[in-house]
DNA sequence: TCTTTGTGAAACCAAAAGGTTGCATTATGA
DNA sequence: TCATAATGCAACCTTTTGGTTTCACAAAGA
């Protein structure tokens, strides 16, 4: 199935898996042993992560090592960043507004607002 | 229900909704009219978005205006950014490695690699 | 060779997700 | 006051998700 990075990181267990293998690749059993759900459940999560490119699984003897492809997170990063200007500008405007309220209070005394 | 920002942005329709109201709040019907699924379906997406804090819905007469709270995306941004150093460093290492291969080739001629 | 280890995958299940139709409710405008 | 517009929500449906147990199979080690 063609999968999406956004879908990949939607599940908290999958985010934990990514964190677990971010610095060091682990085989499937090692990953699974850190959770209290079954190995098969973790295997399915790993499969989803590999389907959306966030993990690459390489066979080595009878083990499969799971390597995080964190650079794929740039897709998420890019998506979020396109909105950063919008939200920071909006926060700045709020700040300006609050400052203006303050200065008006000083000039005219307490004023009823709603 | 307590919801998660990661879950909120997991669905492509919801990301489109966010984009649609990023610059200007719209009422529920206006949002829905941009999609070919039912108003109720969009309403449910809006509810999920509001449950995870990405949208605030305010009544105004008989309409409800949906405002994007894009600053909530910082949670996603923060999560991704904690891995940026890891992945850029890894790409740098790869680059160094490729450069080294190049210089070895110059010194010793073409060499079989596998 | 035989047993153990590490894994993939099938079959099954309950709950959640994403969608629909239909109805009730509240403001607005004529 | 009455029709209509904008909406919330219940009831229902199908597909997906996240989990389980079970079995098969290949590689390693004794």
UniProtKB/TrEMBL annotation, chains A, B:
Coiled-coil region: 84-111
Short name of one Pfam family: HTH_5
Family matches, as SMART domains: HTH_ARSR
Stretches assigned to the HTH arsR-type domain: 1-88
Record's keyword terms, sorted: Coiled coil
Matching InterPro entries: ArsR-like_HTH, HTH_ArsR_DNA-bd_dom, WH-like_DNA-bd_sf, WH_DNA-bd_sf
Gene3D superfamilies linked: Winged helix-like DNA-binding domain superfamily/Winged helix DNA-binding domain
Name of the protein described by the UniProt record: ArsR/SmtB family transcription factor
Gene source species: Ohtaekwangia kribbensis
């Amino acid at each position: 199935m063609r999968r999406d990075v956004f879908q990949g990181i939607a599940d908290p267990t999958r985010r934990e898996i990514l964190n677990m293998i971010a610095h060091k690749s682990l085989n499937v059993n090692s990953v699974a042993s850190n959770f209290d759900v079954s190995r098969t459940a973790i295997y399915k999560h790993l499969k989803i992560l590999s389907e959306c490119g966030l993990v690459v699984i390489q066979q080595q003897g009878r083990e499969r090592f799971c390597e995080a492809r964190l650079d794929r997170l740039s897709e998420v990063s890019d998506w979020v960043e396109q909105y950063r200007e919008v939200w920071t500008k909006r926060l700045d405007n709020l700040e300006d507004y609050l400052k203006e309220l303050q200065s008006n209070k000083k000039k005219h005394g307490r004023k009823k607002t709603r």
